[in-house]
Each structure stands twice: as C-alpha cells, then as structure tokens.
What does this fold into?
Amino acid sequence: MEYETLNQSSFDTLCSKLFANVEMTEEMRVNFRETIFAIQSELKRRLSQLWTEHADFEVAFDYSYCLCLAGAIYSERIFCRKYVLIVSDVLSSFHGSSDWAYHTSHEDVSTPENDRGEFVVTGAKCVMTESMNAKWRMRLSEDA
It folds into this structure.
C-alpha cells in the first residue's frame, strides 16, 4: 500500500474528480447500482468482522453515478492499516477495480475537529489530508 498526503486544496481536486458522475445508459445504470450495492454490502460484512457498525464505522448507503463510495470512522480502534487494507481488498474484488475509490471521513468525536481529516483509498493507494495530525497519518500505515 502506498500512502500520500495532500494539502486540502489538492485533496478537494482529487475528490471532485472521483465524485464526478459517469455518463451511462439506463441499462448501465441498473448494473452500476447492483455493483454499488454489492460493494457496500461486502464492505459492511468485512468491516463488521472486526469492528462494530455505527459505533466504529459507517458505510454510506446513498450513492451517485460515480466511481467513489463513502463512509466514516467513529473510533480510534478502527483507525489502522487493517481498515485501509480491507477497503482496498473489497474494491479490488469488483470489475473495473482500478477505477473504484472509497472516501472516509474521520469523525471520532474524541479527536479535536481540526485534527480529524479525511482520506481516500483507490487501488493500492491511500491519499490523506494534511489536516490529520501525524498520529492519525501514522496509524493508517501501522497494524492495529
């Protein structure tokens, strides 16, 4: 897994690209929705094997016609390399895996808001914002 830290402006530019809607026919939209729901279900299943949904994490149930899904983490214990690897593994198991991405907001209320930040897993890369303090950036690359 490769890790990269971006300033907020560069990170926002990346996210704008990832969250851009993809042009598709209605038939393609049906298949796309099925894939989105399958990825969401698999992420919930895999993450729930180690952590508690709603207490530690959330996989967003909504979607748009883009190649980036989203979620949040709520506890310190889930903030580790294993989380990043599970997300990467799930995304890589779906058709067109190199195009899929997953955006995570760090929403642990025990962490000061200006230290929370966000990150995106895409392919074998984890891209995070500078706003996450060094402790959190380091934890994403370490085993729990």
